[in-house]
Amino acid sequence: MKLEHLIVFGSVMVTAWFLALYFWPRVLLSVFKRAILAKGFGDGPVPVNTLYVQSERSFADPVGAIGGSTLATTGVNRDTLMSAGWLDLRKGPQLLHVPAAGDRYYSVQLTDPFTNTNFAYVGTRTTGNQAGDYLITGPRWAGRLPSGTTRISSPRNSVLVFGRVLVYSDSDVPLAHDVAKQIRIWAPQRGRPSGSTPP
């Protein structure tokens, strides 16, 4: 093979490798976004700017639950109930409410889906187990912070949200599920949704 051919071949391979590294996370992101918004945990679509909690049934029997989960998680999780949501902050911030969790471990992970970087956590190990409200804002938001809230600034207008609530035993699933359902997200201008617990 001539030197010119080797140079061309090497250039093509380097370019292909760079494109694969650059675009593969974005392909996975698209698949993951569709899994959340269209399939959820197997129970149907999860609307944008909501947090959907895994059902007690799918937690108890993740393989046999009707529909099955299409979320690309790290496998079957046997000690934490999962929540998932996709935020679009272009029209304004979203308010995250977490309940008082007592001694129970929980976390809400906020991820920049384009870089797969976790930019904030709310939960036992970072903010404590007391109830609280957190305003998740986009990169250009310049509004007024509502009283009693803590601001979390997102580097982008798209945010991937994962919640986890510890389950101690099979008999504890209903109690853990109740805590998980109290972790809510909504647009602050629409007021607190019905059924949510005030801080």
TrEMBL record:
Matches recorded under InterPro entries: DUF1254, DUF1254_sf
Keyword match Transmembrane: yes
Keywords, comma-separated and alphabetical: Membrane, Transmembrane, Transmembrane helix
Residues spanning the membrane: 6-24
Native organism: Terrabacter ginsenosidimutans
The UniProt record lists the keyword Transmembrane: yes
Coiled-coil portions: none
Protein name as annotated: DUF1254 domain-containing protein
Domain DUF1254 stretches: 72-185
Taxonomic superkingdom: Bacteria
